């Protein structure tokens, strides 16, 4: 869909039998979005309200869940409008903004998980130095870097692609992601190489760091008494579950873009729905049920609600 009043529109061609199932898709996604907003917000509010949760670990969890809310809000409202619309289109500028938000927030998740891993490493491996190292200022620096570093990295291709010439106006997806690279007449080799550097810097490297810190924690826990092992299991297992879940979904997003012609439209559609639903719903459930202190406050909250 070429220029209309100097605005370039892109057709989102990844929907499957939308005329037949539009209300089913809409119902599923609006339910998912409400659950994401309510579950993530509930845990964040508990962390904010209760003073015993004003510790680095819980602050990082709250930041991760806020990240999930913003991530979902960058995708769901437009997606819900598309399900009910006759035409599934988006302006090229809005598409680039969505790509920027999607990958910035996705990479922020890795850096927040890396900050959590460092916090757990200091807590279990250097307990006497914990309060010296994990001060309020350190936590604030980690939080700022977790959002600022990915934004700076992703801004380069965002600016570089802003004036690129398009030869195709149909995107093989239901929202804008890296598939937008297939719309350009000539793909910039420099930007493709830069994309690999970004992937390494803010996804692969943090993941290696996380795995290294948890390996060190496991070694220390194995050599220590039962209490240290219990603490390691209680606080590290939720982070590892979230990391594994998110890495599988993120890896699939990378693969689906690279092998887009080899995957059927229905499979791509179903897996894309999973990518945007699973992680934002999975995180608050895991942290709510597996983190002992958060679970206590959640149980108290639900028991009070029942009484009322």
Automatic annotation (TrEMBL):
The keyword Metal-binding is annotated on this UniProt entry: no
For this protein, the parts annotated as crossing the membrane are 23-49, 56-76, 96-118, 139-159, 191-224, 236-257, 269-289
Provide the Gene Ontology terms for cellular component: plasma membrane
Location(s), subcellular: Cell membrane
Provide the alphabetized UniProt keywords: Cell membrane, Disulfide bond, G-protein coupled receptor, Glycoprotein, Membrane, Olfaction, Receptor, Sensory transduction, Transducer, Transmembrane, Transmembrane helix
The annotated topology with respect to the bilayer is: Multi-pass membrane protein
Example of a GO MF term: odorant binding
Which protein is depicted? Olfactory receptor
InterPro entries from the entry? Answer: GPCR1_Superfamily_Member (IPR052921), GPCR_Rhodpsn (IPR000276), GPCR_Rhodpsn_7TM (IPR017452), Olfact_rcpt (IPR000725)
Lineage: superkingdom? Eukaryota
Residue stretches making up the G-protein coupled receptors family 1 profile domain: 39-287
Q: Write one Pfam family the protein is assigned to.
A: 7tm_4
Similarity annotation: Belongs to the G-protein coupled receptor 1 family.
Glycoprotein as a keyword of this entry, yes or no, is yes
């Amino acid at each position: 869909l070429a220029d209309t009043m100097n605005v370039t529109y892109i057709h989102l061609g990844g929907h499957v039998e939308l005329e037949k199932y539009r209300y089913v898709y809409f119902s599923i996604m609006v339910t998912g979005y409400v659950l994401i907003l309510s579950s993530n917000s509930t845990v964040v509010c508990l962390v904010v309200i209760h003073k015993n949760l004003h510790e680095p670990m819980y602050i990082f969890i709250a930041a991760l869940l806020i990240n999930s809310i913003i991530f979902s809000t960058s995708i769901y409202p437009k997606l819900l409008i598309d399900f009910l619309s006759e035409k599934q289109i988006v302006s090229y500028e809005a598409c680039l903004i969505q790509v920027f938000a999607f990958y910035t927030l996705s990479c922020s998740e890795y850096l927040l998980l890396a900050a959590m891993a460092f916090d757990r490493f200091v807590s279990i491996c250097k307990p006497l130095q914990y309060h010296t190292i994990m001060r309020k200022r350190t936590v604030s620096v980690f939080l700022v870097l977790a959002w600022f570093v990915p934004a700076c990295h992703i801004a380069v291709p965002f600016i570089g692609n802003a004036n690129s010439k398009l030869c195709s106006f149909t995107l093989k997806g239901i929202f804008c992601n890296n598939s937008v690279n297939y719309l350009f007449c000539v793909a910039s080799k420099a930007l493709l190489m830069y994309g690999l550097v970004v992937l390494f810097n803010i996804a692969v490297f943090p993941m290696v760091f996380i795995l290294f810190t948890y390996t060190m924690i496991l070694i220390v826990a194995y050599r220590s008494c039962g209490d240290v092992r219990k603490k390691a299991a209680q606080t590290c297992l939720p982070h590892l579950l979230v990391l594994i879940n998110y890495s599988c979904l993120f890896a699939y997003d990378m693969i689906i873009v690279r092998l887009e012609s080899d995957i059927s439209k229905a499979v791509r559609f179903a897996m894309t729905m999973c990518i945007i639903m699973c992680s934002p719903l999975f995180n608050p459930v895991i942290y709510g049920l597996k983190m002992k202190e958060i679970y206590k406050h959640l149980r108290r909250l639900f028991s009070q609600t029942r009484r009322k």
